[in-house]
């Protein structure tokens, strides 16, 4: 017996995919649990489906409607130098780990670290194109300007918002020394700016003791010494934890288990905007849940939960027995370029399934 579901209203690609996937979960004309007794897909169809789910889930979690189009890529030397300065270049895994130097947030908080490279002007003005996360309340923890200066005598550098010399964001006295990097903390003075929707941050630099001005000390023509701004923030999100573990699927059992699948970003053409890691371990849960295995409480928000939420929202009937669902997840660490070519580091909660169990 064929069944047709009408999708009305506004649907995201991920939502449409999940309802389509759920509609397949019918056995002998009777509704079944979406993760149980799934009719086997051909390998090519399963691969295409999982790749599309991975794409849509990452874009949705990053609040992007489509993958960024990197038309003006930041020089790799500048990126490598910034990462080296921030000690972010170590500790990467295959898509299941965290940044080694990232100060871990709680599991219900998504952390961001934005690295924005400046557009410079001869007058000593630095311009940064920042991207705000729409619809989410962000708490800004840190804003730090990095400048590489040539050898100089004793100088004093002031930083303020362009056109507002009365608002000094940062000031530092530098003694005579050779060339090198200098950092300027701009918080909490920039807090008001971040709380508004303005995406363009324009900073003016004033230097006492520079001849003729601050720009004469900045190596703006060097790809590796480009000024950059580092902003750390976090987003509060609700979440639930469950602890029951399960094993990976094998060919000898139909019971609830974790099925592993790896999406390589180079294979899908996403390695131009996702800097690290090289891929995403998009594991999912499948298998039977006999009555004696039921009883794992709670399901956190994820692709898997989206299936069940959409089932309820669209009144798609399913059997009343237990379902195979994720019981333990971890964050996916990403280092990526946003549409403004800012380099952003974030841990996205609940993206990698570690264990499955029966609800």
TrEMBL record:
PROSITE patterns: TGF_BETA_1 (PS00250), TGF_BETA_2 (PS51362). SUPFAM superfamilies: Cystine-knot cytokines (SSF57501). It is found in: Secreted. InterPro entries: Cystine-knot_cytokine, Inhibin_betaC, TGF-b_C, TGF-b_propeptide, TGF-beta-rel, TGFb_CS. Belongs to the TGF-beta family. Residues 1-29 form the signal peptide. Homodimeric or heterodimeric through association with alpha and beta subunits, linked by one or more disulfide bonds. Inhibins are heterodimers of one alpha and one beta subunit. Activins are homo- or heterodimers of beta subunits only. GO terms for cellular component: extracellular space. Inhibins and activins inhibit and activate, respectively, the secretion of follitropin by the pituitary gland. Inhibins/activins are involved in regulating a number of diverse functions such as hypothalamic and pituitary hormone secretion, gonadal hormone secretion, germ cell development and maturation, erythroid differentiation, insulin secretion, nerve cell survival, embryonic axial development or bone growth, depending on their subunit composition. Inhibins appear to oppose the functions of activins. Residues 242-359 form the TGF-beta family profile domain. It comes from the Eukaryota. Keywords: Disulfide bond, Glycoprotein, Growth factor, Hormone, Secreted, Signal. This is Inhibin beta E chain-like. Its main location: secreted. One of its GO terms (molecular function) is growth factor activity.
């Amino acid at each position: 017996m064929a069944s047709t579901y009408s999708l009305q209203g506004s649907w995201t690609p991920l939502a449409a995919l999940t309802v389509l996937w759920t509609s397949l979960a019918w056995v002998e004309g009777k509704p079944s649990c979406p993760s149980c007794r799934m009719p086997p897909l051909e390998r090519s169809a399963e691969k295409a489906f999982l790749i599309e789910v991975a794409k849509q889930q990452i874009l949705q979690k990053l609040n992007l409607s489509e993958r960024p189009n990197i038309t003006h890529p930041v020089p790799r030397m500048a990126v490598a130098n910034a990462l080296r300065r921030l000690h972010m270049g170590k500790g990467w895994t295959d898509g299941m780990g965290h940044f080694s130097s990232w100060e871990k947030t709680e599991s219900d908080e998504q952390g961001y670290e934005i690295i924005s490279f400046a557009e410079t002007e001869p007058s000593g003005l630095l311009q940064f194109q920042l991207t705000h996360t729409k619809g989410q309340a962000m708490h800004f923890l840190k804003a730090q300007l990095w400048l590489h200066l040539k050898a100089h005598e004793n100088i004093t550098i002031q930083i303020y918002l362009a056109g507002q010399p009365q608002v000094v964001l940062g000031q530092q006295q530098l003694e005579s020394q050779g060339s090198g990097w200098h950092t300027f903390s701009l918080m909490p003075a920039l807090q008001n700016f971040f709380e508004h929707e303005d995406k363009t941050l324009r900073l003016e630099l004033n230097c006492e003791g520079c001849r003729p001005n601050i720009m004469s000390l900045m190596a703006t023509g060097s790809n590796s010494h480009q000024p950059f701004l580092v902003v750390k923030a976090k987003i509060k999100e609700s979440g639930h934890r469950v602890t029951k573990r399960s094993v990976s699927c094998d060919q000898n059992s139909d019971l609830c288990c974790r099925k592993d699948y790896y999406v390589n970003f180079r294979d899908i053409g996403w390695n131009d905007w996702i800097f690290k890691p090289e891929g995403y371990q998009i594991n999912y849960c499948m298998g039977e849940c006999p009555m004696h295995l039921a009883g794992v409480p709670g399901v956190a928000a994820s692709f898997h939960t989206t299936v069940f939420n959409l089932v309820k929202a669209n009144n798609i009937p399913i059997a009343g027995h237990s379902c195979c669902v994720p019981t333990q997840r971890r964050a996916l660490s990403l280092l990526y370029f946003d549409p403004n070519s800012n380099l952003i580091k974030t841990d996205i909660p609940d993206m990698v399934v570690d264990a499955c169990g029966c609800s």
